[in-house]
Design brief:
The chain has 15 helices and twelve strands. By secondary structure, the chain is α/β, with parallel strands linked by helices. The protein has a seven-stranded mixed beta sheet with strand order 1-7-6-5-4-2-3, with helices on both faces. α1 runs antiparallel to α3 and α11 packs across α15. The chain is globular and about 75 Å long.
């Protein structure tokens, strides 16, 4: 299996067949499992084998297939599936940190990630230092000998900053800190996080892994020691595990993810190139445009710009709303990585709880629209985006 190419792993890795020899993975919708004897129950609570389970909150055959498959793709020893992407973020951080620990984090984060670091962890005595993630000198100044972990989004939401993961990992490892990355925008398809030094990789499976707007899910990928001895005890006792049905949906999503994501990224680049320089736009943010501030890092780390771009409309909120309301194909919602193209106004939705000053510091303007590119025809999408830009110009 280690010699298989990624697409093969996405279809076959981790498959567990029952005695019936089914082709499609089975959904084991059960809360608990039975034991032949009292002695067998006692033994299983001491140590479970690879095909032995105790309770669905601890593990499940369908969930385990998903964990094994994503770990094989990501190149990690193990994985633990969670109820959502935010359960994975919170579970990773809460499982390993305690009062007095120090964390350094990039400040450009998804709103809920920022809330966990800024409001929840600090409430329990964890010290968090925020830095400009694109400034390697800022990381070097903030990381201390007692730093326990660094946290970052490899590509930030929604401003699409690309962090030099290799450089940050080298700095963190010199002091023994754990490198934790939220890799949603890079996607499992374009990820090189393990190679670049990350220790723990988190995904919201709700995004590209499902890819069709059906289920919530998340996953933590890392060493077997971290996953089973640090993350699992916290998550299984606090109830953040993934349901078997959602795990089955994610397995089905993985089978087509490589094809979907590559097609979406190709269209995203075409759209970004086509609309850059439009008079309604102050700028277009897309990692593989030469104009992107971290273009060289993006080329090195991902090999693709991903499926998401951000459009900064010159006319502010009024222009952004006019753009959104003129769209006929692209839907207005707050998810991403879907087969359907989705547009979001971060300042009034995903990042609305931030102050004006905080949003300005992160580069989130009132005119910014995040566009997650789907699987529609490229020409149809370009016509739709141009329709929106024409409406924004008229404001």
């Amino acid at each position: 299996m280690t010699d298989w190419k990624p697409r093969t792993k996405l279809v076959h890795s981790g498959t567990r067949r029952s005695q019936y020899g089914e082709v499609s993975e089975s959904i084991f919708l059960t809360q608990g499992f039975v034991y032949d004897t009292a002695e067998a129950a006692e033994a299983r609570f001491i140590e479970t084998g690879p095909d032995e389970f105790i309770y669905a909150r601890y593990g499940n055959p369908t969930v385990r297939m998903f964990e094994d498959r994503i770990a094989a793709l990501e190149g990690t020893e193990d994985a633990f599936a969670t109820a959502s992407g935010m359960a994975a973020v919170n579970g990773t951080l809460a499982a390993m940190l305690q009062a007095g620990d120090h964390v350094v984090s990039a400040r450009a984060l998804f709103g809920s990630c920022l809330y966990i670091l800024e409001n929840i962890l600090t409430r329990y005595g964890v010290e968090v230092t925020f830095v400009d993630g694109t400034d390697n000198d800022a990381w070097a100044a903030a990381i201390r000998p007692d730093t326990k972990a660094v946290f970052l989004e490899t590509v930030s939401n929604p401003t699409l900053e690309v962090i030099d993961l290799r450089a940050v990992s080298d700095m963190a490892h010199k002091v023994g800190a754990t490198v934790i990355v939220d890799n949603v925008f890079a996607t499992p398809v374009f990820s090189r996080s393990i190679e670049l030094g990350a220790d723990v990789i988190i995904y919201s499976a709700t995004k590209h892994i499902d890819g069709q707007g059906r289920c919530l899910g998340g996953v933590i990928c890392g060493t077997k020691d971290f996953v089973r001895n640090t993350a699992e005890p916290y998550l299984k006792h606090t109830g953040g595990s993934l349901s078997p049905f959602n795990a089955w949906v994610m397995l089905k999503g993985l089978e087509t993810m490589d094809l979907r994501v590559r097609a979406q990224a190709e269209t995203a680049l075409a759209l970004a190139e086509a609309v850059e320089g439009h008079p309604a736009l102050a700028k277009v943010l897309y990692p593989h445009l030469p104009s992107h501030p971290q273009h060289a890092v993006a080329i090195d780390q991902m090999g693709s710009g991903g499926t998401v771009m951000s459009l900064d409309l010159s006319g502010g909120k009024a222009a952004a709303f006019a753009f959104l309301n003129a769209l006929e194909i692209v839907t207005i919602s707050n998810n991403l990585g879907d087969a359907k193209s989705i547009a979001t106004h971060p300042a009034t939705t995903t990042h609305q709880r931030l102050t004006d000053a905080q949003r300005a510091d992160l580069g989130i303007t009132d005119g910014m629209v995040r566009l997650s590119v789907g699987l529609e025809d490229t020409g149809d999408l370009l016509a739709d985006v141009r329709r929106g830009l024409a409406a924004a110009t008229a404001v």
